[in-house]
Amino acid sequence: MKARVSDILVVLTYAMIAVVAAIAFQRFNLMSAQLAWLMGAVVFLIAGQVHAAAARAEERARFEAELRALKRANAALAETLTNAQTRLDAIDAPAPEAAAALAGEPAPGRDEALVARILARLDAAEAPEPEPASEDAAVMVREALDANRVDLYLQPVVGLPQRRTYFYEGFTRLRDAAGQVVAPGAFLAAAEEAGLIAEVDNILLLRCVQIVRRLTKSDRRVGVFCNVSLRSLADEDFFPGFLDFLRRNGDLAGALIFEMPRAAFEGRSAIAARNMARLADYGFRFSLDQVSDLNLDLAELQRAGVRFVKVPGDKLVAAAHGGEPVAGREPGALPPEDIAGLFARYGVDLVAEKIETEATVVEVLDLDIAYAQGHLFGAPRPVRDEVLSQTDQDLRRTG
């Protein structure tokens, strides 16, 4: 009611201004009476349009504020529901754990148990039987997890043209019984088939959190790309603990970016999409790799929280100068130097990866690409155990 009365008063004020203007034009003989009243009407219409535009801007700002508040409330509701489920589960728990959970306190040794569970081997009885073709590889993965022969390798991602390191990409590498490093192609598929990929993702997450805490002590701007399987994000047994661990390390949201293949992202299930949205609500971002062309749905990437897209440098240059569609545009519709700007308007940064030569760097610079990665700037290198151990105590305390 107050808003309506206010609008009526504003309209009356503009009408009075228009009448006064018309009388003034006529009284001072600036124009004929008919033209004076016409000018008064024009003044009234212009003032009304200015007021309407200001009102729309205010309404839009209010709507955006309400939307942000709704997202925060949604994240809080999701956390409340998770806590409620924990309390229900505690009814069947042994007495000490149940008492702690129902009191709203963590069970004794909860954080330590979580870290131990991440690093412990997966019980073979709980894992699906692997296919015969991958049985040897699955056994090797189980043994490596059991013996904690899991290493974190880091490769720098630099900004162009200065080549300052802004991010690192984290890779999981397993070692066999002889201490030889096993290539990803030799164990990732086997881990997927044997139901061990969640365990591998869990360990990589722990390692990435450890190294992020180490790096951000000296530079808060440095982030780490952490590879994660969509199968893990869709696993209803794995994801609640995964989300809880990240929520309790929420201060790292700006520095931890979850990376996945483009094909997996585009084929994600409804459960995986929902769980990605829950991570995005807590401020975590996503990156896509294994991208061979630029014909991406940028609006969908923006909605899903994808903020980085990695494309091999040579393919990026070829796509920019070739006859391929870019983000749904017709081939050749965008000048090559405008492509990065188009992605940036949707909050997505392009990363030219697998850069091996200076010649490729020159071509990528012509496209105004912000970031680059490849052996030219540094090969993946293992993080020393002592570096991780120095941050392990902080992780247990804050995890």
UniProtKB/TrEMBL annotation:
Keywords, in A-Z order: Coiled coil, Membrane, Transmembrane, Transmembrane helix
TM spans (from-to): 7-28, 34-54
Pfam families (alphabetical): EAL
Keyword NAD assigned: no
Coiled coil: 53-87
InterPro entries to which the protein is assigned, alphabetical: Cyclic-di-GMP_PDE-like, EAL_dom, EAL_sf
A molecular-function term among this protein's GO annotations: cyclic-guanylate-specific phosphodiesterase activity
Domain spans labelled EAL: 134-394
Protein name: EAL domain-containing protein
